[in-house]
Amino acid sequence: METKKDFHMSPEDFRRYGHELVDWIADYQGRVENLPVLSQAQPGQILSALPKQAPEQGEDFSAMLKDVEQIILPGITHWQSPNFFAFFPANVSGPGILGELLSAGLGVQGMLWVTSPACTELETRVLDWVVDLLDLPARFASTAAGGGVIQDSASSASLCALLAARERASAYRCKDQGCDGKQTIYVSTQTHSSLDKAAMIAGMGKDQVRKIAVDKNHAMQARELARQIEADRAAGFTPCFVCATVGTTSSNAMDPLCAIGEICRQQNLWLHVDAAMSGSAAVCPEFRHIHDGLELADSYCFNPHKWLFVNFDCDCFFVADRAALTRALSIMPEYLKNQPSESGQIFDYRDWQIPLGRRFRALKLWFVLRHYGKRGLRFHVRRHVDLAQQFKSWVEAHDQFELAAPAPLNLVCFRHLDSDARNQYIMDRLNQSGQLYLSHTRLDDKLTLRMSIGQTHTEQRHVERAWQLIQAAAQGYLEKKA
Ligand SMILES: *Cc1c(COP(=O)(O)O)cnc(C)c1O
Fold first, then answer.
1. Which ligand 1 atom is nearest residue 313's CA?
2. Average pLDDT, consecutive stretches of 10 residues, N- to C-terminus, the chain (482 residues)
3. Is the CB of 195 under 6 A from ligand 1?
4. Which own/partner pairs from 326-329 qualify as long-range (CB within 8 Å, at least 24 positions apart)?
5. Which numbered atom of ligand 1 lies nearest the CA of 155?
6. For burial by CB atoms within 10 Å, which of 103, 108, 313, 407 has the most?
7. Ligand 1 contacts CB of residue 192 (under 6 A)
């Protein structure tokens, strides 16, 4: 093979292999349905198939594509399979993938407005579109005192919200002098673990996270929240932050935003609302009630990378008072100083997040919103909720299965009435078969199966087949015992 003088991939090769790779992805989408959903790889299998060192002599791109097929693909759990019902969806789409590709092609590092004005201003515009799309409170728009920013994940959004809350509560002293160790934060026993992690990272400590009890539907008890805040104040703590969830990870429980919001108002606490998966439902007017009370929140986030056809990573994070966020996170070394930043006429999104650097993520969200339009997004979200509601009705009608929680949207928590062992058997057998992928949780101290519906190409026939397979596996348990 002739070695190229400068080692680069030539523009002609880039074009050729680029087309080949796009073809490969399009073919993958066509065959993913027939691949085992949960990777059947053993620990270390992929590792041992890979050379221990990078090659001395550069290789041809076709060699890499071959290894993708032979080594990587067997180690993929197919999140894009229509038979993927585990955890939560991470649905991607043609326009989302192309937006990701364009972002890579432009190779922009958008830390400051000046390092690519379009990277900042497209993001501002698209996040204002999202305020309209979900009918979020007007105060979250950049045209008011708030604004939205794309974070990598809901975990980062929660951490930023917590940092802003802590600064506001300490009159912006924590960032200079450190915390006094007295600030407390409030979540429910069902809140995502990223809030514990945020308290760890912020140096507040997990012990300062108060876990409020939930009601029979696994939603935070507002009265318990009020009681705990009073008790902490009496004990000399400084309550500063509450996280309420719209659609908990475990069971899709909806915390009562109105009641929690009123308490936060009265007590002057920052209210963050985490709607990572379920927020997408608000594209449909009939589901917007999940956000009742959101006008009382200081910040809000949801993940288009879960249930809105945008590739990971894309979390939309909104604040009602952007100055509170940037005051907590802004820092200006000499080498970043520039005239537009000093003019105060622009946003520098580095001041709205933890890292300095940032990718041009708005492109993929923009492409998806323009490709589907509001109508297309509503169509698919509605379709997924319909499928989940059908599945729920089959569970309810069956004499050996029960619902384990209300299923307001696209997640159905259910179980066989017999025993944990039988539910475990159903899940393990189906997941090992590669025919579908389900995950579990524990509710009311019982093993509970979760049917999460929201993959791009999941149709009625996939959900019907899943229900058939679940019933057959439940039957199989008896045969195995006999
Ligand atoms: C998925 C999920 C998270 C975590 O999301 P990341 O974006 O991966 O950090 C947090 N909260 C809720 C309610 C979720 O559903």
1. 7
2. 76 96 96 96 97 96 96 98 98 98 97 96 98 98 97 98 96 90 96 96 94 98 98 97 98 98 97 98 98 98 98 98 96 88 92 97 98 98 98 98 97 98 97 97 97 98 98 94 75
3. no
4. 326/351, 326/352, 327/164, 327/167, 327/172, 328/160, 328/163, 328/164, 328/166, 328/167, 328/168, 328/172, 328/175, 329/160, 329/163, 329/164, 329/353, 329/354
5. 9
6. 407
7. yes
DSSP secondary structure code for residue 158 in this structure: H
Pairing of strands 439-443, 209-212: unpaired
20 CB neighbour count, 10 Å cutoff: 13
Contact call for residues 21 and 15 (beta carbons, < 8 A)? no
The token pair that represents 304 in the structure block? 């288009």
Element (H, E) at 262: helix 257-267
CATH class of 108-359: alpha beta
Specify the residue for token string 């056809």. 309
d(CA 165, CA 183): 10
Nearest CA to ligand 1 atom 12: 276
Q: How far is the CA of 306 from the centre of ligand 1 (A)?
A: 9
CATH superfamily, with its number, for domain 368-481: Aspartate Aminotransferase, domain 1 (3.90.1150.10)
Task: Give the type of residue at 260.
Answer: I
- Where exactly are the structural domains of the chain? 108-359, 368-481
Q: Are strands 411-416 and 446-452 parallel, antiparallel or unpaired?
A: antiparallel
**C-alpha separations of 170 from 173, 175, 179, 194 in Å:** 5, 9, 8, 23
Q: Which amino acid is at 457?
A: H
